[in-house]
């Protein structure tokens, strides 16, 4: 029998969640760096440079890799010979660890979990509860695998009940483009095959806890059908040319992980869950000797990446920018933004439009005339920070609000993550506005460009309140221009064709 204190599990969970908030797994850093070295698309290479620089800054400053510090998912294997010192339930112990981690004063993590998801959607304030999967196994230890999964990638999860004769590879290749770039590639695809629908989804999630090893697999060759599938899916998905941040390029996925389980003869359940550029997971074992020890990686393990877009970037003064000026911007162009912008996400958009529909006008201090809105829910500041990590959120969620906001407020530009949907593009074209893309997975780097910040409306919405940011040379890419041209359509098309032509030459 092993005696494990409640406190040891609680503190181990708290320590691990803090650890993964600012330390990328080194296998992920190495995989992104290798992809960066191979990349031929300038836009995709720039995006990966920002991801790598952000990763190193976070490791140095011990601040979150992404402003979305995730929903906590935990896999527990509890030995049947374990005894507990303390009267808490297993779930209560895990959730107390989550609470401590997310409220640690020196590195406060963003609370994103809401009660009553189909109703009031009230924030719990401490990011609890976690999603917990528990298995009783022989032995006298507790094995813990935990992750903090961002909403942008989680929202792109897919589940299908295929016929037994259907091709899993064809389904994946057909489905990945429908996910857009809101999952922040490059990342991993976790795939669960078999069991029942819910089992396949859990398998897909658990598969993402494994390290990146696709290149080792490729060198030694596949030993079974699952390994063959991993290689085939990775190659065919990368041949789509989606690229980093959906801008077009050679690398969309860094690895494909697959777990399977026996299934009914009439069934072929398949779930696919992507992991984003803020891949965060940790593993530890408790054996009764105390709190788990997580060894910090050496900063020497991070590549030294330099990134300077100054010579080819257009500098923009947000305080004087006009409709005439934005009409000259072209998709794919890099801008450096300076001046004041407002922020707003789903909840703020909904409230703003309700006020306008009711004839109330905009809140005091909120003026969108010839202004830009940044889709962001930042992490609270600590120490001497102006604001915590403040990377963009998925822009397509705001598409349904875009037409009304552009028509009624004088707004001329938006900044967010990934592509816009057709409704958003149509509204942008109609009102001759623009949409700019900031890199998802570079939240701490983005925050360095924010010189001043204050909440000006809807403080009760917490991280979804409307802020006024004053920025200095914040890097963005023109993603949709005033004519409705989208770099997320043209970029992948160009690179898909280039990759196909390259394969044709190799075969000739």
Description:
The chain is α/β, with parallel strands linked by helices. The protein has a domain at 310-491: fumarase (Alpha-Beta Barrel). Helix content is 33%, strand content 24%. The protein has a five-stranded mixed beta barrel with strand order 14-15-16-17-19. A four-stranded mixed beta sheet has the order 6-2-7-12. It has a four-stranded mixed beta sheet with strand order 8-11-9-10. It is globular, with a radius of gyration of 23 Å.
Write the layout of secondary structure elements.
Elements (H helix, E strand, L loop, with lengths): L1 E4 H17 L3 H13 L3 H20 L9 E9 L2 E4 L4 H13 L11 E2 L6 E2 L7 E7 L4 E8 L1 H4 L3 E5 L5 H8 L11 E8 L2 H11 L6 H7 L4 H14 L14 E9 L6 E8 L5 E6 L27 E4 L5 H4 L7 E10 L2 H12 L14 E3 L24 H11 L3 E4 L5 H9 L3 E4 L5 H5 L2 E8 L8 E15 L6 H21 L1
Parallel strand pairs: 1-3, 2-6, 9-10, 13-14, 14-15, 15-16, 16-17
Antiparallel strand pairs: 2-7, 4-5, 7-12, 8-11, 9-11, 14-19, 17-19, 18-19
Brief synopsis:
The protein has helices at residues 6-22, 26-38, 42-61, 90-102, 151-154, 168-175, 197-207, 214-220, 225-238, 323-326, 346-357, 399-409, 422-430, 443-447, 487-507; strands spanning 2-5, 71-79, 82-85, 114-115, 122-123, 131-137, 142-149, 158-162, 187-194, 253-261, 268-275, 281-286, 314-317, 334-343, 372-374, 413-416, 434-437, 450-457, 466-480. It is of the alpha/beta class and 508 residues long.
Q: How would you classify the helix and strand content by structural class?
A: alpha/beta
Quick one: CATH superfamily of the domain at 310-491?
A: Fe-S hydro-lyase, tartrate dehydratase beta-type, catalytic domain
Task: Determine the strand fraction and express it as a percent band.
Answer: 15-25%
Q: Tally the helices: what do you get?
A: 15
Q: Strand order within the widest sheet? A: 14-15-16-17-19
């Amino acid at each position: 029998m092993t005696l494990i204190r409640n406190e040891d599990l609680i503190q181990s969970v708290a320590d691990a969640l803090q650890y993964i908030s600012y330390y990328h797994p080194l296998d992920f850093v190495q995989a992104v760096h290798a992809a960066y070295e191979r990349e031929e698309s300038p836009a995709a290479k720039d995006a990966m440079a920002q991801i790598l620089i952000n990763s190193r800054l976070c490791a140095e400053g011990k601040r979150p890799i992404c402003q979305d510090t995730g929903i906590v998912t935990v896999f527990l294997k509890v030995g049947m010979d374990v005894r507990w010192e303390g009267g808490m339930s297993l779930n209560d112990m895990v959730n107390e660890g989550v609470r401590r981690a997310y409220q640690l004063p020196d590195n406060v993590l963003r609370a994103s979990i809401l009660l009553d998801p189909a109703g009031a959607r009230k924030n719990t304030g401490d990011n609890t509860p976690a999603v917990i999967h528990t298995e009783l196994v022989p032995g006298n230890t507790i094995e813990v695998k935990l992750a903090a999964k961002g909403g942008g990638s989680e929202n792109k999860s897919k589940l299908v009940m295929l016929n037994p004769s259907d091709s899993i590879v064809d389904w994946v290749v057909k489905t990945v483009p429908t996910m857009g770039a809101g999952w922040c590639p490059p990342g991993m695809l976790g795939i669960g095959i078999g069991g029942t629908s819910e089992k396949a989804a859990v398998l897909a999630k658990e598969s993402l806890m494994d390290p990146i090893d696709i290149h080792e697999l490729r060198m030694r060759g596949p030993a079974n059908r699952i390994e063959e599938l991993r290689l085939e899916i990775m190659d065919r998905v990368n041949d789509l040319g989606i690229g980093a941040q959906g801008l077009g390029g050679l690398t969309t996925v860094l690895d494909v992980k697959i777990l399977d389980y026996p299934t009914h003869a009439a069934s072929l359940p398949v779930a696919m869950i992507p992991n984003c550029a803020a891949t965060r997971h940790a593993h530890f074992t408790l054996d009764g000797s105390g709190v788990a020890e997580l060894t910090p990686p050496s900063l020497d393990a991070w590549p030294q990446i330099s990134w300077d877009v100054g010579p080819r970037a257009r500098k923009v003064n947000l305080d004087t920018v006009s409709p005439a000026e934005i009409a000259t911007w072209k998709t794919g162009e890099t801008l450096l933004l300076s001046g004041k912008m407002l922020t707003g996400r789903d909840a703020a958009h909904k409230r703003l439009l309700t006020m306008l529909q009711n004839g109330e006008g905009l809140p005091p201090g909120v003026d969108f005339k010839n202004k830009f809105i940044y889709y962001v829910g930042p992490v609270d500041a600590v120490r001497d920070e102006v604001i915590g990590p403040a990377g963009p959120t998925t822009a397509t969620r705001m598409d349904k609000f875009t037409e009304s906001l552009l028509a009624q407020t004088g707004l001329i530009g938006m900044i967010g993550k990934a592509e816009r949907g057709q409704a958003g593009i149509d509204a942008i074209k109609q009102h001759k506005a623009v949409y700019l893309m900031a890199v998802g997975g570079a939240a701490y780097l983005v925050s360095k460009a924010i010189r001043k910040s204050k909440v000006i409306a809807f403080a009760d919405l917490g991280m979804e309140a409307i802020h006024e940011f004053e920025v200095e040379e914040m890097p963005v890419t023109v993603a949709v221009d005033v004519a409705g041209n989208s770099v997320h359509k043209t970029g992948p098309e160009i690179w898909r064709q280039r990759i196909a032509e390259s394969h044709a030459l190799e075969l000739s």
